[in-house]
Every structure is written in structure tokens, then in C-alpha cells.
Amino acid sequence: MNEAIRPGVDYQAQEGPELSVIVPTFNERDNVTVLYRRLEATLVNVAWEVVFVDDNSPDGTWDVVRALALKDSRVRCIRRIGRRGLSGACIEGILASSAPYAAVIDADLQHDETQLPKMLLLLASDKADLVVGSRYIEGYKSEGFNKQRAGASALATEVARKMLRVEIADPMSGFFMVRRDRFERLAPKLSVHGFKILLDLVATAHGELRAVEIPYTFGARQHGESKLDSMVALDFLGLVLAKLTNDIVSLRFILFAMVGGIGLVVHLTTLFVALELIKAPFAEAQAAGAVVAMTTNFVMNNFLTYRDQRLKGFAILRGLIMFYIVCSVGLLANVGVAFSVYDQEPIWWLAGLAGALMGVVWNYAMSGLFVWRKK
To answer: How many angstroms separate the Cα of 82 from the Cα of each of 55, 140, 312, 329?
Structure first.
């Protein structure tokens, strides 16, 4: 024992990985082993690790990853409880990695892992801080990108480039590699909500990241279903608006306010139907409009704004009742502020705007405390 620890012996720490591959997962148990084997075959000349960040998948994806980790120490698993979202998963994975370079790749096998060595070479040779697998440069091929999804992506890309002045051709890509030290500087300003981590990263950097784009082949999904749903459009718009304010207003607040705007349309539509078609008295029609709007807002906020704290089972009923109470008090705050402003300055639209703003701030703050409170 003394021989083993005597002074003068030259001990060298084992060298760590050069590349960390970050894979956000949710219900991808049929894909993770295939992806691991592909990485193993592609990165034969690279010291690498793979960090699967799983959002507590009901299908037990995390259990499959742990079985792989028992056989290969290069495989790691971060199982997140009570947190959801691709962006947050990517941020946690990169910050938990140990290599100087970190790649983000989907678990659905649609990204081309054979491009990873080329991306790594560009970063290691100091030709770039960020390398993006791009769908909008010459050489890109697609085997699994349908026309509807391609059109939506192209429109979102154009909006992002013009409104946020993003220079790269494909800021909506989910396949990229970045220097970890550069990422760590920007991480505190990134949103953990939403799906478009690359757009957030590039917009936050304000042109400080040297970016190179390379083409790749977008493959067809082999197992499972896409995690992108109809709420992604609102999520994307919320991220753009948040970046336009330089993150003074959080993405979650903007999403909450956007849902509130939709709720106003629902309220007015319900009021019109009740008055004109059903011929209900105004008081009953107004009450119906309020209940339908609040219910709609609750459902949309549960699926979009607070997706990482989504209520399920009996908690939905409790949350809905609390949301009714919170919004009812918010209505009183709205009216009270509006009357106060109108007494000081009798401009109806200014008073109405002040009241509405007070209402949404109150509802947002109280919803976070009582409806979608973190456990």
C-alpha cells in the first residue's frame, strides 16, 4: 500500500474526451442503441463521449441508455424529472459535458452523424466557433423532410434572419457543433424553453460566433414520431419577440401574453355566438365568454407556456380551478388600474392598455406561484 502511494512516482491523469455528443431524448428507446453504434463506427479516431439528456421518457429511454453506459463508460445519461423541452435539455447536456467541443444531434436518426469528424476538424483547426449542418446550402440532401414541414421551416428561417438579423443560412437547424467555452459564455442568456436552441444561440451571440455551414443528408425517421406539435409556431414567434427585446421580457411571459391574446379572441367570439345566435342575455353571454376563454387559456398554457411543468391527471382539475381564481382576481386588478389611469388621464385606450397589462402581469405571476408551481 505504501509502495503504491510513495512520493516521486509520476502519475498522469487519463486524458478526457475531445468531443461530447449531446442527444436530447423523449420516447426514443428504439433509436438510442442504433445511434450509439453509429457514433462508435464514425468516431473511431476521436476521443468521444455521448450524453443522452432524457426528459423522463414514459417508454423508458433512460433505462436503455443506462444499460449502454454499463458496457461503455463513454455513454452518460441525464434523466430530468419535472423539466421538459429540447432547448433546456441541450443546455444542460453541454454544460455537463467534459470535452472542449460539443455537438448536438437528434436521437431520431435523421441527422448525418458521419459529418461529425469534419465538423470537429473545422473547430479544432480554429476555423470556426460554430459549425452548422445546413439544409440551405449546396450539397444538402433530404430523405425524410416532407414538403409541408420544409415549407414551414423555410418561412421560419426567413423570419428569423430578417427580424433578428441572423447571418447563417439555417438558424433553425438542430444539428450543430460548438466550442464549449464559447457556449458557456452565452449560456446564462439562453432560454431553457422551446425547441430552437441554435437560433437562440446565434441571436444571443450578436455576430460574435464565427460560423461555418456544411451540407448533410437528412435521413428518414425509422422509429417513433416527431415531437414537434402545432404549438411550435407560437413557441418560435415567442422566441423571436423575446430576442427583439434583448431578453428584457422572458420567453415564458411572451408566450403567456400571446395565449392571453388568443383568449381575448375566443372570449369575443363566444360572446358574439351567445348574443347573436343563441340570443342569451348579455350577463350570461359575458360569463360564458369568460369561462370559455379562461379554459382555453389554461389548456394552451399547460401545453405550451408551462410544457416543462405540464399538469396531468387530477392535477389538471386542481390547476384549472386555481387558474379560474387567479384570472378572476386579475380581472379586478385590470379594471381597478384602468379606472385609476382614466381618472388621471381620460384617454380610453391608454387606460385600457394599462389595465390589460396589469391583468396579464398579475395572471402570469400568480399562475407561476399557484397553478404551475415547481415542486
So the answer is: 8, 37, 12, 28
The sign one gets for the Cα dihedral 360, 364, 369, 370 is positive
**pTM for the whole structure:** 0.73
Q: Which long-range contacts (CB under 8 A, 24 or more apart) does 180-183 make?
A: 180/20, 180/94, 180/97, 180/99, 180/100, 180/101, 180/102, 181/100, 182/129, 182/130, 182/209, 183/94, 183/102
| Three cell numbers, residue 72 | 461503455
Q: How far separated are the first and last CA of the chain, in Å rounded? A: 48
For residue 112, what are the contacts with CB-CB under 8 A and spacing of at least 6? 133, 175, 216, 217, 218, 219
pLDDT digits (tens, 9 = 90+) for 338-372: 778 878 877 777 777 787 788 888 999 999 889 98
CA distance 298 to 1: 65
Three-class secondary structure of residue 211 per DSSP: strand
Residue 127 DSSP class: S
Backbone phi and psi for residue 218, each to the nearest 5 degrees, phi listed first: -85, 110
Q: Which tops the pLDDT comparison, 292 or 247?
A: 292
